Amino acid sequence: MRAGGAIRDTTLTPRALALLPPGTYWGGAYRTASGESVTVYASNAYPVDPAMGQRWADFLASLVHGSEISSIKVFLAPASLVSRICGQDALACYSPQESSLVAPGGDPTGDISAEAVITHEYGHHVAANRSNAPWVALDYGTKRWASAMHVCAKARNGQLFPGAEDPVDYELNPGEGFAESYRVLNERKAGRAETPWQVVSQALYPSDSALTALDQDVNTPWQGPTTSSRTGSLTRSTRTRSYTVPTALDGTMNMTLRGSAGMRLVVDVYASSTRLVHGAGARTLTRSATVCGQRRLRVRISAVSGTGRFSLTVAKP
């Protein structure tokens, strides 16, 4: 975060984390009312006060979260030390490798609360512990949220820049948009006033459906593709069959087509009039397609030669 302006954070490096060596902070694991253990440390610049550590542990446990909460390590420090660790223009930082975040223990500016900063950083921790294959959730956001926000299509079109940390493209970084959306979700659930949307472009402000998708991503993380199968037959008079495949989520779709002995098949996948996939000339065909903003694909199966039955297996995100 930049004081008096747009919120900005950075990636916490092991070298930077070394600026908080053991002995310069106090705290540890705190048991919350939900029975979870949350690790909170505070700089020695703050008086030793277990109630402070407990308060922040309880706050973190109040956020929408999953099992990833057991691995987070929160380091609270005065703004001057946070700037040394995270960078001059940053009010906080997060390390996915260390599952650690550094944030101020008090409100950094008059407009931004410490709670807002820590919620944003914890959003990065949520993303780091979710899959959005074939993309990195930390950069693109979680699976359902990113699909609802059309992150893949906008990134392809040069409207968003996943992973961007430079000042020019930072405001169009969907990973930061996800962390801010996570903050908005939690503020709404807690009935708190929304912190001004200053981190990223208004284009990344979440719709209600995107917030619902984010909530699902936290509570019921996407586990991988779902598989379905269809069977049919191709005869001398019917040489082509077509199927519509709904694709609610972006990601990789894998298809396997198998025909009866003696058949040579063709498979084509279309998004509207655009052909995404073509495979021809074999009894068994395996192909992949990237779903990127399309919410319905058409699969057409044709026989080059032979007749008989076929099976189509589709694994989609």
Describe the structure.
The chain has helices at residues 14-17, 50-62, 79-86, 114-128, 137-140, 143-148, 151-156, 174-190, 208-219; strands at residues 10-11, 25-31, 37-43, 73-77, 93-95, 100-104, 226-234, 240-246, 251-259, 264-271, 274-282, 284-291, 296-305, 308-316. The chain contains nine helices and 14 strands. The longest helix is centred in the middle third of the chain and has 17 residues, at 174-190. A six-stranded mixed sheet has the order 1-5-6-4-3-2. Strand 10 and strand 11 form a beta hairpin. With 317 residues, it is of the alpha+beta class. Helix 4 crosses helix 8. Mean pLDDT is 94; it is low at 1-6.
- Taken in chain order, the helices and strands follow as EHEEHEHEEHHHHHHEEEEEEEE
The total strand number stands at 14
Query: What is the spatial order of strands in the main beta sheet?
Result: 1-5-6-4-3-2
Strand content: 25-35%
Helix content: 25-40%
Arithmetic mean pLDDT = 94
Low-confidence stretches: 1-6
What is the end-to-end distance? Answer: 34 Å
**Assembly annotation:** single chain
Tell me the radius of gyration.
24 Å
**Number of contiguous helices:** 9
Silhouette: elongated
Structural class by secondary-structure content? alpha+beta
Q: Which sheet architecture does the biggest sheet show?
A: 6 strands, mixed
